[in-house]
Each structure stands twice: as C-alpha cells, then as structure tokens.
Write a structure and sequence with these properties.
Layout lengths: L3 E8 L2 E8 L3 H20 L6 H51 L1
Antiparallel strand pairs: 1-2
C-alpha cells in the first residue's frame, strides 16, 4: 500500500486538499471529473442556487445512477443463474438421450 499524501482537487471552483494514496490518484481524478460534470449539469439545468445545493443534487444524481446500475447488474445476475440452470438441464437431457442410444 502506498502512503497517503495531500492531493489538491477543485470542485465547483473551490480547491480542497484531501488525503489520497498515490496509486489511487487516477481513480480520484476520474471521480473529480464525474462530480464536476454533474455539478455543471445541475447548474446548467437551472434554478438551483448555491454550490452546496448543487453539490447535494449532483451527489444524489450520482447515487441514483449507481443504484440503477447495481439493480441492473443484480437482475442480469439472476438471468445468468437461470441460464446456467437451463444449460445444466439441457446437458442432462442430452446425456440421458445419449445413454438411451447406446
């Protein structure tokens, strides 16, 4: 594990120094970009005044998107297990058919 250092980030025109391990800086940079994009989106869409409120709405939008993605992944996991059960049944039926043919 690499040592944490103070890393300067800028969100909504404000600068912050946060602790970040050296190997996590690319992920932090991507997260900063995502949050900055959401802040810009909230500010462009309108009637929200103040950075604190924009940041709150941006965080809620990001959390909502994350939860939607997780729900979709869980649903496809269920689909995957259903497909696996079907493959197992088909394999068993083929094996049974092959044994009858012998």
């Amino acid at each position: 594990m690499s040592k944490s250092k103070g890393t300067k980030i800028t969100l909504g025109g404000r600068s912050f120094i946060i602790a970040c391990e050296e190997d996590k800086k690319p992920v932090l940079a991507a997260a900063v970009d995502l949050v900055e994009d959401k802040l810009d989106e909230v500010q462009r869409n309108g009637k929200v005044i103040g950075l604190d409120r924009c940041a709150l709405l941006a965080a809620l939008n990001i959390a909502s998107e994350l939860l939607e993605e997780q729900t979709q992944l869980q649903g496809s996991g269920d689909l995957g297990s259903q497909l696996q059960r079907m493959v197992t049944k088909i394999d068993a039926a083929i094996d049974e058919q092959n044994q009858l043919s012998i």
